[in-house]
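Fold sample X.
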Amino acid sequence: MQITPAELEIMNVLWDQPGIGASEIAEELKDDKSWNIRTIKTLVGRLVEKGALTTEPDGRRYLYRPAIKRGDYQKKAAKQFVDRMFGGRAAPLVAHLADSRGLTPEDIADLEALLGELKK
């Protein structure tokens, strides 16, 4: 399932606050996006069609809940990105990140800890 960057904005709101309606989603995004309620409803409709959201009637409106977990989507999207950009190899990705923006001492410590766990 491909989720566009705009749809991901909607998903992030619903992962944080599942079971809200389109107007609440619009309220959450009003400071970052200049989307009107029709735009929100269009994006939500696409996500429902893709199977990323479920709907629940609530009077004259619908409440939306993610049908996929954030972590599951992140894993799949990260794998697709690494496969497409780095031939499925993580080392070139890390090297690119280190070259392009530098790794903080905290980043390096986190990576060392992760490698230590993976070696066990």
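Fold sample Y, listed below.
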Amino acid sequence: MADRMQWANALSTRPSLEAAVTDVVQRAVSTLTAPADLGLVFISSAFASEYSRVLPLLAEQLSVPVMIGCSGGGVIGTAASGQTQELEAEAALSLTLAHLPGVNLQVFHVLGEELPDLDSPPDTWINLIGVPPSPTPHFILLSSAFSSGINDLLQGLDFAYPGSVILGGQASVGGMGGRLALFCNGSLHREGTVGLALSGNIVLEPIVAQGCRPIGEPLQVTKAERNIILELDEKVPLVVLRDLIASLSEKERALAQHSLFVGVAMDEFKLSLQQGDFLIRSILGVDPSGGAIAIGDLVRPGQRLQFHLRDSQASAEELEFLLERYQTKPEFDNSAVGALMFSCVGRGEGLYGKPNFDSELFKRYIQDVPVGGFFCGGEIGPVGGRTFLHGYTSVFGICRELSVED
């Protein structure tokens, strides 16, 4: 019998860290029929005072060559009942183990001040990361919430590793303003980015649900400066926006007061734009006198954008739309063996009014797959072929072996 890829996950809510570690190790190991090559551990900020004990406790009971992880505002994993749970406000530990035959694993830890200049050639980035560009690696990144260099790192990796899928999240400290933890093999880090490169017999397929739906029609930026839109369709942006809001229903107008965003079209040549084609960015402010609008990203003339609204219904419908679209891809063959979930602390029960919403919807489409992850302070995933740091987003990474079609 051929050696096949295997994934397992276990989630524990034992209040003692020793008991939680024993619980997740025993359950995850018992699910695998071959040795684990990779471990991913996510721990809730309720254990903040004990982060330094996590890796030593795991090492006492588990021998795995590569281990990464971080702290989160909450963690996601498989409870003893077999249900995937998203636990946001309690002590919890999630351990994913994977047996990955034919997959090369490399870990790295980089600090913001170590990053090359964005004008540097690809080799400078490749030398820093220590990962060859061929065969094409896929990356899982876990970053400090205060990592000033994360946007530069994403841009550099996209440049140096074309075709790579890059996803992950920023470690979050929960509501207490405590410390965060990044785990990389035997080391505990407090800042920078911990990365894992996977190459060889593995496919990592991303789903990036930004939680918004478009309103109105796509518009063209006709004048802009840095992140400030000065003209839309040769009109004053604020006037265009006011006319749009006036055309909305009463419920949508109320929503626009606090949940209005801009979606920037990522494909300049795509005629018919739909959900998933936009990079969602915040509106930072408006100039009441000149009518300009500032957004949370650089913008240039010629780009198309569309205003968006965000609420629980839009968020649910968008994730469902993306999962349906994933299932209808020609290469979809239901061969996924594991999944990772990086969800914003602003989603979860606070958004939907009930727990486990995103993970249950995911499992309805991608069944019998262990899911592990955490609630992030920012989510990393691709939109339109480039990698970005997001907010209010759920990013899924679906793992499977290479197939003939790949």
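Sample Y note: The chain has two domains: 6-210+315-401, 212-310.
Also: Residues 312-327 form the longest helix (16 residues).
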